């Protein structure tokens, strides 16, 4: 709710199931169907288990900046051959499904929501944290960067959507940089398999320079 944004939430079960969350978030939040939320957003954040990507409403997402937080997890999502063999990425599959009039920007996928909630800082703060983004549309990346600025984050552009693999699960930029411990303290993190104690660690800032260095370490 940072930055005076109004938020429209949706899920698969219907807006009535979000009443408690809406009450908790306050008067700038409301709940709607997925199609209504997609139509309402200046920015639309898609955060569903990846296996649900082809049930998202396509028509209202046309011409929108679609921020894709998803990570593919074979255990949760079932095996998807093109992802298992590395020939494409989950965000590219979402882009294909939505069609080229929607502009997918991969972001937020490499930071746990509990860390995201506390690492925001004003522009210029010494301990401001940076988040990587990837996307094929320059204007949509500028638009996403604007949102992250409102939310209190810097942005590092990792390149086209295919480069989202540089901050996918198992890469150095995934999860670990946003904790109080150095990234090297962790092995390769996968979705849902954070090592014991990971979430009890304090969040720790990661600068744009650190994120750039970690992206460069990832194999392409
Ligand atoms: N949790 C994190 O901190 C985090 C961080 C980075 C990235 N991610 C990624 O973000 C994605 C979501 O993770 P999560 O932890 O938020 O999962 P989650 O707790 O299982 O929540 C998923 C949400 O998606 C909704 N949903 C499922 N199918 C839908 C559909 N077809 N249309 C509309 N809404 C639908 C669910 O609604 P119902 O409950 O009504 O079914 C639920 O609200 C995953 O790909 C994950 O890897 C998560």
TrEMBL record:
GO terms for molecular function: oxidoreductase activity. Residues 5-72 form the Pyrroline-5-carboxylate reductase catalytic N-terminal domain. It comes from the Bacteria. This is NADP oxidoreductase coenzyme F420-dependent. The keyword Isomerase does not apply. PANTHER family: DUDULIN-RELATED (PTHR14239). Residues 67-86 are annotated as: Disordered.
């Amino acid at each position: 709710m940072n930055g005076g944004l109004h938020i429209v939430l949706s899920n698969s079960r219907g807006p009535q199931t979000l009443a408690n969350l809406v009450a908790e978030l306050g008067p700038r939040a409301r709940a709607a169907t997925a199609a209504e939320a997609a139509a309402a957003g200046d920015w639309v954040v898609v955060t569903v288990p990846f296996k649900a990507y082809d049930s998202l409403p396509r028509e209202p997402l046309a011409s929108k900046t679609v921020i894709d937080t998803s990570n593919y997890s074979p255990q949760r999502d079932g095996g998807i051959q093109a992802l298992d063999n590395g020939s494409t990425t989950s965000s590219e599959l979402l882009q294909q499904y939505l069609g080229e009039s929607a502009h997918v920007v991969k972001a937020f996928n490499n930071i746990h929501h509990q860390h995201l909630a506390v690492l925001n800082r004003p522009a210029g703060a010494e301990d401001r944290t940076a988040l990587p983004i990837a996307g094929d549309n320059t204007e949509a990346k500028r638009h996403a960067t604007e949102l992250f600025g409102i939310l209190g984050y810097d942005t590092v552009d990792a390149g086209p959507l295919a480069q989202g693999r540089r901050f996918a699960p198992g890469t150095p930029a995934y999860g670990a940089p946003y904790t109080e411990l150095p990234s090297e303290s962790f092995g390769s993190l996968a979705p849902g398999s954070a090592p014991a104690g990971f979430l009890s660690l304090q969040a720790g800032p990661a600068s744009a320079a650190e994120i750039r260095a970690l992206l460069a370490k990832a194999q392409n």
